[in-house]
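agent> step 3/5: call structure_predict on target 'DMT family transporter' (Notoacmeibacter ruber).
agent> reason: downstream docking stage needs a structural representation; sequence fetched in step 2, passing through unchanged.
tool.input:
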Amino acid sequence: MRSSGTTTASANTAITAYAILTLTTLFWGANAVAGRMASGHISPGMLTMLRWLVALVVLLMISWPRLRMDWPKLRRALPHLMLLGALGFALFNILLYSALNFTTAINAAIAQSGMPVAIFILNFLFFRLKPGFLQIVGLLLGLCGVAMVAAQGDLANLAALKINRGDALLLLAVVVYASYTVALRSKPAALHWQSTMTGMSAGALIASIPYAIWEAYSGSLIMPDATGWGVVLFAAIFPSIFSQSLFIKGNELIGGNRAGLFINLVPIWGTLLAVVVLGETFELWQAVSLGLIFSGIALAEKFKPKV
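tool.output (status=ok):
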């Protein structure tokens, strides 16, 4: 039997994880709205590059003593951390911000709730974490909800392969971030979060530079105006430093599968903010899509295999 002290500590750990992951998803929901606001004011590659440049400068300022202490371990882990940053911080956001030039912030928020489905699938493919029958049913429901987003509420569009360019980019972004979440289990555990975030932010900055250069070469580069700089600063502080650091901590506390479920809060925050801030309309088919995704994830979590 567990002692009361162990049970209390476990409960406190769970409560802490739930609180920080809820805050994480609030900032991520706001990121979709900010990305929509950035359309026409700064190009996706430039936004991603400047976002992580500002974030890296801030992290270096507040983390320098810790970085000096951790440097022997950080130096060995740096290639791995930079690869994670390139995947989850740079590529995901380039895809998300590009998508928001063609689709709504509400769609972006709903599509991100499909991440837990992708996380379950990737964990099965790479780590053989086998789902039970009812978990599979739940995952299929979630996939139906994501498909409805891609089809803009009309599944006939899927049969005709008529998918909005922005929504196709959203689905690709979901797969990218799910891959990053699964890969987080292999990050160096001994490093402080400040060193981890600094290494990953450096990777994100370096990885985003080629895309910004491509934008300039192709004529699609948009340098930030006042609104663009506002989005850059917001994205650098809240969805970047705060959210990513909190998400890493949440993964450490309760594991990737359980932490990934909190991404279901992103569409709630994102939808509310899109309606209030951007004046977007919440359609019936979007509500149905959310219902399918939430029901599927709830079923998958409730009947997850015991380990």
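agent> step 4/5: record observation. The chain has one domain: 11-302.
agent> proceeding.
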